[in-house]
Design goal:
Elements lengths: L1 H35 L2 H27 L14 H30 L8 H29 L4 H7 L3 H29 L4 H30 L5 H12 L4 E13 L2 E10 L5 H18 L3 E8 L2 H7 L8
Helix pairs in contact: 1-2, 1-4, 1-6, 2-3, 2-6, 2-7, 3-7, 4-6, 6-7, 8-9
Amino acid sequence: MADGILNKIKDDIVLYGALAANLGIAVAKFVAAGLTGSSSMLTEGVHSLVDSGNQVLLLYGQSRAKQPADAAHPFGYGRELYFWAFVVAILIFAVGAGVSIYEGYRHMLRPEPLSDPLIAYIVLGVAVLLEGTSWTIAVREFAKSKGDSGWWTAIHRSKDPAGFIVLFEDSAALAGLMIAGLGIWASHAFADPRIDGVASILIGLILALVAVILARESKGLLIGERADSAVIATIRGIVAAHPGIAAVNHVRTIHTAPDSIFAAISADFVDTLTMGEGETMIEAMEGELRAAVPMLASIYIRPEKREDAVVVHEGVPEDQ
């Protein structure tokens, strides 16, 4: 329980840090865009504004996900966070990438000479500092949670979208800032304002790529993903260790929230067990399972003959 609370606090720190940085950066970028006429700077302003909205949605999703279970939602509201994570991905694609690509295309068709870029460079420098700070916080927190897994593997297996969404957003933001800076410099160096429009389009394409990746990961969480294989192995080992269990047929799990798992276990009980002994053993196993895996919010153990389980679940992987 304590670990879960600490993780929530860390997630909130990452989100609030990113929100504060993006709001300040968005204002500065819009001012710089108005003064310099830079398309890529305007695009970056929209980018930061969208990111700010995304952090608000994720904080709202986290708040909604903390609601206790009720009659209508017996497994709680944890997966509501996954819904809002998916909405964030759609917003990045539709608003962030769409506006960036459109603005860049418009600027290429009707290029306008850029004024003194000094203000833009100052804003970009401050933005890199703030985004870099937010990115560093996100990287450090995600590195702690990923353990020995590789970065991409950890992102793919993560059941908490808040951490990796901020990580992707900040990475895209830093890449966008570098592209915007190069676009402004090249536009002045080669006296061709269309280059600034090309920079906007490139920023939009980066946002579109990030949105597609986030949508893919969020969709998997939204429709339901199993627990980590190590958790499933732990569950199987605890149940199989009981002398009253002849065989563990399968272990099916699903995350109902980042820190909440539902487990359905089919096991072949020895034939000599009485009803009362079976009930006592199930109660003991549930206690052991919750002690070993605190994220197990709901456990369902079904006595089932091995041959019956094979017929019923034919063609389905043994553990999910």
